[in-house]
Protein: DNA 3'-5' helicase
Amino acid sequence: MITKAREYLQHYFGYESFRSGQEAIIERVLAGKNTAGIMPTGGGKSICYQIPALLFPGITLVISPLISLMKDQVDALVHNGIEATYLNSSISASEAYTRMNDIKQGKYKLVYIAPERLDHSAFQQEWQHMNLSLVAIDEAHCISQWGEVV
Structure:
């Protein structure tokens, strides 16, 4: 699968090769191993879950605490021809409903959500019936600021 990952890197992101550390992280993710990718700012951490998202059959759920970052990431993915969306407080209830229906129909490969959305029982119930392949936590250094884990 790593050969296909290299092809997708070039096709969707325009890079000839992976940066230091990316390929090893992607190989672990593709092997189904829990993985923490620790890289410097601008080191290309997002590609480490975005490429596997394209290779896995289901949806990749990306938990991200920053609304502006979600929008920027989704805009860049869509620009590159990758089906992605986000669910957060910046969209209306009707837009969130529409996006959830699209998610259920398999329209998106990547779905970005704010961490607090995980605390809603309705959201949890919706996702029990989804084809979820991967969960990624973006900006994981913010986890301690997200609140108490119960």
